[in-house]
Amino acid sequence: MSLLRSRDNPRVRRWHALAHDARARRSQRRALIEGAHLLAAYLAAGGCPKAVLVSESGSAKPEIAGLVRRAAIEPVTLPDGLLRWVADAATPTGLAAEIGLPEGTMDIARATHAVFLDGVQDAGNVGAILRCAAAFGVDTAVLGRGCADPWSPKVLRAGMGGHFMLRIVEVPDLAAALPEFRGSLICAATAGGRAPDELDLTAAVGWILGAEGQGVSDAVAARTTLRASVPLAKGIESLNVAAAAAILFHERARQLSTRGA
């Protein structure tokens, strides 16, 4: 077990950059995950961390020690204050890991249940959408320009491990990428669309979600096959985009379950 004590150490500075700088994550194709839950989810999905960071106090915790053994890699110990500086979380848990990111391009045509995000900037919403996507059998998430970085610490925390159950693709032009998908493209709209349970969702489906304020761009909307709107009580104008996503994803899972029964 190695021990690092200085902020000036090149490895420590690089880990700090991965937690705080999207450019560093993109250029190095690495990210920093923080906490026992995320590391456990990453390992359960077959991930192999590039490095495991443990605080001096955290190394004495049985849960952390167990995860370090599962990771099968020699951990790096940092003083508690130094790990707090490295990590993004306001209250670090004493454990972090450096992970490799998936390749920048993936075959969208492979997807059978996908979500396409158009300018969803809020990190909490992006993470919650990815968490819901994993929970309801979405296999691919495609993020266009203007979305929150899916590998930022805030999105990772909100995703609660859902990242590691999905193929995550970032594209510079979402409208140009949509024709690669071979199923129905359904645009979520606050009003004017069909109720989700009125749609046949048993084949390949790609949901298109935009930011709550501006919605889906015209260029992206023009590529869609259908529009879907979640029925709301009188006086309620719209749902949080992550809440709407959960309802849409669940409806497809329900239809597939009903067909199977």
Describe the structure.
Helices cover 35% and strands 19% of the residues. The protein has 261 residues and is an alpha/beta fold. It folds into 2 domains: 2-100, 60s Ribosomal Protein L30, Chain: A (2-Layer Sandwich), CATH 3.30.1330.30; 108-260, SPOUT methyltransferase, trefoil knot domain (Alpha/beta knot, 3-Layer(aba) Sandwich). It has a 6-stranded parallel beta sheet, with helices on one face. The chain has a 5-stranded mixed beta sheet with strand order 1-4-3-5-2. The longest helix has 20 residues, at 241-260. The model has no long low-confidence stretch (mean pLDDT 94).
Mean pLDDT: 94
Radius of gyration: 20 Å
CATH architecture of the largest domain: 3-Layer(aba) Sandwich
CATH homologous superfamily heading of the largest domain? SPOUT methyltransferase, trefoil knot domain
CATH topology of the largest domain: Alpha/beta knot
Q: Strand order within the widest sheet? A: 8-7-6-10-9-11
Q: Level of helix content?
A: 25-40%
Give the class-level CATH name of the largest domain: Alpha Beta
**What is the H/E order?**
EHHEHEHEHEEHEHEHEEHEH
Sheet with the most strands? 6 strands, parallel
The domain tally reads 2
Which regions have little confidence, pLDDT < 50, spanning 5+ residues? Answer: none
Structural class: alpha/beta
Give the strand content. 15-25%
Give me the count of strands.
Answer: 11
Number of helices: 10
